[in-house]
Write a structure and sequence with these properties.
The chain is α/β, with parallel strands linked by helices. It has eleven helices and eleven strands. The chain has two domains: 168 residues, 3-Layer(aba) Sandwich (Rossmann fold), CATH 3.40.50.720; 120 residues, N-(1-d-carboxylethyl)-l-norvaline Dehydrogenase, domain 2, CATH 1.10.1040. The N and C termini lie far apart (42 Å). Bound molecules: ketopantoate.
Amino acid sequence: MKFIVYGAGALGSLFAALLSKKHDVLIVGREKHVEAIEKNGLIVEGLSNGIFHPKTRWDGSRYELIILTTKAYDTKKAVEEAVERFGKLPFLSLQNGLNNEEEIASIVGYENVIGGITNHGVTFIDYGKIRHAGYGETVIGEMDGKISNRIRKIAKAFNEAGIETRISKKIKEEIWRKVVINSAINPLTTIFKCKNGAIMKYKSLIREICDEGIRIARKEGYVIDDAFKKTMEIIEKTADNYSSMLQDVMNGKRTEIEEINGAIANAGEKHGIKACYNIVLTKIIKEMENVGT
Ligand code: KPL
């Protein structure tokens, strides 16, 4: 298949690297990252190892799918730019946060949106170099729940490239589960400045944060009662990774706290639930963004 990975930071680069073994992949990211890849290849260390060579310059040919891996707060701008550069193509969001699919659809329509989540842990080491620090499942699904030909084709292409992928008929529920998982792992690892595995000892706190998200998800119509169990599993599987939020704070970048914990708190407010944990975590991380590490 022909994929564009748009907004390739750590996670997008892992997908571009693995997919490029079997498919035609164009990587779009920050200029310095792209230049380093052109010079030395895309270097992946850790669980996946090697030097990969996705395309870095567009040859004008038509691609089949844009895999969007930008930060959630950049979604709208990124989709507008991508459409302008490559034309109107289907988008698969593999981003963190709650409202990416709606934002993409506001530009290209729901028929061009595929929802997705992935639980791989990836650390950005330097321009052109990433570390695959934790395995995780990838789940994709049509927004209307149908098992379409294109979703089958994408899942097959991912699996053939070694990216374990499952199709879901309830992708929005998967996205809610993933957001609740991130609502515990990401701010806690950022506050305690530690790898994912080191928060294992705060089990009761993690349970309470997850329970708050689970309760709000249910009001939205999504039953994700296993979210705490899944969170503990993902902590174990990505124990050696620095969460994307901690990486952002360490690099002086804006975090996705508003799109993760802030979005859960906003949904809670809609249903008359004061999401105390999510509100406090959002405030603490916003302070850390201002002050830095
Ligand atoms: O999604 C992640 C993130 O860091 O944003 C996990 C899966 C928790 C990996 O670190």
